[in-house]
Design brief:
alpha/beta, 504 residues, Glucose Oxidase, domain 1, Aminopeptidase, 2 domains
């Protein structure tokens, strides 16, 4: 970016800093030419100046929110193998090239192609529900604010808020619902023959006492991912899955589901949390209820797609790479704003901020938009395969895939924990001082197989609202807060700076 594109006060402060510190191998150029290779040695820049410059610039002239709006509103959802995903890739390449990073390129990869289809209907027939609605006293067991707002009226049948899970087969199924509230219950009820000929509702809910909502998600998501196979083995006709959310509402949350070729594939459908509560109640009170499922989703042949990469080449260790990014694909129900357009914009903005401030990285910095995280991980897998094939040295990788909410900190590999901890007081000044042991992510995970010493970092924003929108029609641009998104981008940039400074 040219100097004119930066807020004048920030640029002037950086110029003054450069003048004061010119004997110490300046890494801020304020838009001027970069230092020559023979001038470079261990960087000793005042870290607080860098951190303040990053946050000042993003809060006064951030680009992430605008670019996310272009992606969400101009392209929309980006399910792997879809036309939208391919249009998005063209947009991403053009957008990144406009910032004149050292390199912008793609990595081709074949991805799965599943389509939801035009027919997606789940209906409930229940005289008990009709009588309850006529009485004006719906059951307290499922009555939440969502039903109050919806204000359902007595009718012949009730269209339920539901959507096919990613990868589901289609079909027309009718039957009664039986509720399963745990994995242990699934096995015991299945062995007792109770699931045969039934539509199974897998109804394990989030543990509301867990402050970390990702922990709550991890405690019940296996029913969505792996529920089809055991239910089919036990003779179920189809499976309804309680949406992965800690919110009571009428928005179904999709997500991937898996089959085994040796087991009959049955339809898999997500139902909104409020609908799951309704069905659990009706299944007890109305033995004559009936649910009809009608889907024509399908799996098509794989399609060529691509990862998108932009980089700033390191001056001291150009052969050593620090990766950071998010996944570019999304589910088709929303716009993939938080999941994971935000993560991609965090990475792009981090690279842009460092470049705009004239920072010369020691290592090569790579912003990566991985494709096909949601239903195949082929983008991340191919990225790692090519790294091995080309003998690339990826020394660190950061993944942002938890939404664009207010940043809290990072999960960090134990090997680099001491170096990161040195910055904790400074990170605390910006509200991002949470440093947890861990680090990693679905897309960067395969890099460990290439180089077990690759240091992993995960970006951690506040988690309380993430599963309100995760994989749902509500994951749209309007539900992203500009300031929170930009703060997250600056946090990622600060961590990339730390890694660049601390690693050899």
């Amino acid at each position: 970016m040219s100097i004119s594109a930066q807020p004048a006060d920030i640029v002037e402060r950086m110029r003054a800093y450069n003048e004061l510190n010119s004997p110490r191998n300046i890494v801020f150029s304020g838009g001027l030419s970069s230092p020559l290779p023979n001038q470079i040695r261990r960087i000793t820049i005042d870290d607080s100046v860098m951190f303040k410059a990053l946050f000042d610039l993003v809060l006064t002239d951030g680009h992430a929110y605008k670019r996310l709006g272009e992606l969400c509103k101009g392209i929309g959802s980006r399910l792997s193998g879809s036309d939208n995903a391919e249009r998005g890739i063209v947009w991403a390449v053009s957008m990144l090239k406009s910032y004149q990073f050292d390199t912008v390129f793609t990595q081709s990869v074949m991805v799965p192609r599943w389509e939801r289809g035009e027919i997606e209907s789940v209906k409930l027939y229940s005289k008990v529900l009709t009588n309850q609605l006529k009485s004006g006293k719906p059951s307290d067991d499922y009555n939440c604010e969502a039903f109050v707002e919806a204000n359902p009226k007595p009718q012949k049948f009730y269209p339920l808020n539901a959507c096919a899970l990613g990868g589901s087969v289609g079909g027309h199924i009718a039957g009664t619902v039986i509720v399963v509230n745990s994995n242990r219950a699934l096995d015991s009820m299945g062995k007792a023959g109770l699931l045969r000929g039934k539509i199974v509702l897998l109804n394990l809910a989030f543990d509301q006492t867990l402050l970390n909502t990702f922990q709550a998600y991890g405690g019940c998501v296996s029913q969505r991912v792996n529920g089809a196979v055991p239910c089919s083995k036990y003779g179920a006709l189809a499976v309804l899955v309680r949406s992965m959310s800690n919110r009571c509402d009428l928005h179904p949350h999709t997500g991937v589901t898996h089959y085994e070729d040796s087991v009959t594939k049955i339809p898999m459908v997500a139902v909104a949390t409020a609908v799951a509560d309704l069905l659990a109640d009706i299944s007890i009170k109305d033995p004559n209820h009936r649910v009809e499922i009608d889907l024509n989703c399908r799996t098509l042949p794989d399609r060529l797609s691509a990862n998108v990469i932009a980089s700033s080449v390191g001056l001291q260790y150009p052969e050593k790479i620090i990766d950071f990014g998010g996944h570019f694909d999304s589910w088709d129900e929303g716009e993939g704003a938080h999941d994971d357009g935000a993560g991609c914009m965090h990475a792009f903005e981090a690279l842009r901020l460092l470049k705009a401030l004239g920072y010369t990285p020691r290592h090569t910095l790579r912003c990566v938009f991985w494709i096909n995280e949601e239903n195949g991980l082929r983008g991340g897998t191919e990225y790692a395969r090519l790294a091995a094939e080309r003998g690339e040295n990826h020394i660190a990788a950061l993944e942002s895939d938890r939404g664009g909410f207010v940043p809290r900190g990072f999960g960090v590999d134990s090997a680099i924990m001491p170096g990161v901890k040195m910055y904790q007081k400074l990170l605390n000044d910006y509200g991002i001082g949470t440093i947890e042991k861990g680090g990693g992510g679905a897309d960067i995970g395969p890099l460990k197989k290439v180089n077990p010493n690759t240091a992993f970092v995960s970006f951690i924003p506040d988690s309380q609202r993430y599963f309100d929108v995760h994989h749902a029609e509500t994951d749209v641009f309007e539900n992203v807060n500009k300031r929170e998104l930009h703060l997250g981008a600056a946090a990622v940039a600060a961590m990339i700076y730390i890694l660049d400074q601390q690693l050899e």
